[in-house]
Design goal:
With 311 residues, the chain is an alpha/beta fold. Helix content is 43%, strand content 15%. The longest helix is centred in the N-terminal third of the chain and has 22 residues. The chain starts with a strand and ends with a helix.
Length: 311
């Protein structure tokens, strides 16, 4: 992995991943793409619609990349409000990116999600291989995406790799329409108002991960020995299993007067209830050495400090 094309580079993961990759591999060796571009964006960047397969192929060929990291997607809550758009973007875009990688013989990464799991999946310590019957369009997209990446590996020998992300927490970019976004919003509201109204109900466990761990997992997986990878698309990874009350307790160690109330969003709560409480990351640990550095307390301290710096 020496020269990398990133789709969805303006999104929550993409914007931070591009920065991290440029630190590791050099600014000129990471090409960001998206439907729009921030004025202050530095480094190579192309406007690309991932539903246009030729555009992905042409940009990858133009920059002579050896890797595509495909992140462009409509997230869980937004996908429920626009299921046809979600299918067209999430599945059409993935197929186009895979075809470009196949035609140019590139290494390929795309993230999956705990959204692949559903109400019939074991909720505690969810195994790597288990029942996946999601009840959301986003989850359907992600299951189909995992299978499609497997197909390209077995049918064409394409080096496809992926992880199943839990909810991602970051101070760098605003929430992007995910069910776990409350775990980002709660920190901003703690700093601004010392209180937060959660749209997720009390005692709802969900898996979470701090963005530095999420970015390091991509790089570690993509640099791993391919002969040691059994599951490829995609690995369970997780760092934190927590409820809104757990975040409140961690925040109160720094802001004792912080208050939490609830106004539950039934759509996002239904999605949250269909997901696991905790997942088993042992396959990722055994096959490519995954390890999370941040627990909820270390993450909370860093989140609050970084948000204060930005304010």
């Amino acid at each position: 992995m020496k020269k990398i094309l990133v789709t969805g580079a303006m999104g929550q993961i993409g914007s931070e991943l591009v920065r991290k990759l440029r630190e590791n591999y050099g600014p000129s060796n990471v090409i960001g793409t998206d439907l729009w571009k921030k004025e202050e964006t530095e480094g190579p960047f192309e406007i690309v619609d991932v539903t246009d397969g030729k555009a992905i192929h042409d940009v990858a060929k133009k920059h002579n990349v050896d890797t595509i990291m495909h992140l462009a997607a409509l997230l869980s809550a937004k996908a429920e409000s626009a299921p046809q758009l979600a299918w067209d973007l999430n599945m059409g875009g993935l197929m186009n990116a895979l075809e470009a990688a196949r035609e140019l013989d590139l290494q390929f990464f795309t993230p999956s999600s705990i959204g692949v799991f559903g109400p019939t999946t074991p909720k505690q310590n969810t195994p790597q291989e288990t029942t996946m019957r999601p009840t959301t369009m986003y989850g359907v997209n992600k299951v189909a995406g995992e299978l499609l990446c497997d197909y390209y590996y077995y049918r064409y020998g394409l080096d496809t790799r992926g992880v199943r992300y839990p909810g991602l927490i970051s101070y760098m970019t605003p929430p992007g329409g995910g069910t776990t976004d409350y775990a980002v919003e709660i920190y901003y509201e703690a700093i601004k108002h010392k209180k937060y109204t959660s749209y997720i109900a009390a005692n709802t466990y969900m898996d979470m991960m701090y963005m530095p761990d999420a970015l390091n997992a991509i790089i570690k997986l993509m640099e791993a020995d391919p002969d040691k990878l059994v599951h490829r698309n995609a690995y369970n990874i997780s760092a934190i299993s927590a409820t809104p009350e757990d975040f409140t307790d961690a925040i109160r160690k720094h802001i004792p007067e912080f208050e939490l109330t609830y106004d539950v969003d039934p759509v996002r709560q239904q999605i949250a209830d269909s997901w696991p409480d905790s997942i088993d990351s042992s396959a990722a640990k055994e096959e490519w050495g995954f390890e999370a550095a941040y627990d909820i307390d270390r993450m909370t301290a860093d989140m609050l400090a970084k948000i204060r710096e930005k304010s």
